[in-house]
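Morning!

This is the sequence you dropped in the shared folder:
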Amino acid sequence: MVLVSFFMLVYHSRDMDPNSKVYDELAESWYHLRHYTRFRRELEALAERWQGGRLLNIGCGHGPDFLPFKDAFRLYGLDISGEMLRFARKYADKFRFSPALVLGDAVSLPFRDGSFDFVIAVAAYHHIGGDENRHQAFRELWRVLRPGGEAFITVWNLRQGLFSREVLVPWRTGGKTLHRYVYVYGPGELRKELHGAGFRILSQRPRLSLLRPFYRNITFKIAKRM
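The structure's back. Tokens below.
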């Protein structure tokens, strides 16, 4: 079934996460096309606000979201794709910073309780399939943040004009089309989920697209309650 011409409906099982293999295959083309973060303004403001500390980048990909934090923070990155992490090392070498990079899943973070002062997760949580897996991922985020620690999250917004909660998003590379699983959040849905995981909401904003008459991403700043 085709949705808005190129999105496809999908039913996802965590037992065999397709996004890991997909991102392995598209990593090189992603590295060259998406070389800089689309959230530079927001992340630079956070770097100035936070000043320094241990920062985890969940779903770090090839690493552009690290750049605003590279000089004052101890950086850790986690991704489900080994190939993405390989390009993240290349990216870090290019821009002269040294994150610790870990192959892993946001649903079961391989870090001790209270390990991080700050977390960023740009376009990561909407790739997790299954309600319980998404709930567990936010519980894991709460667990690895120190009390009072803050996080910045972005997810796709149902107001983008999508009419299904679950879609497959195409990416052309090497003469073939790969499909990335995305769960699309409705307004207020993620806010409720974050409250349920024990977070305090510092801000919630849809990110307005200048090119299209609808909102692209929902962004949240949150804090772990003391």
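Headline: The chain has five helices and eleven strands.

More detail when I'm at my desk.
O.
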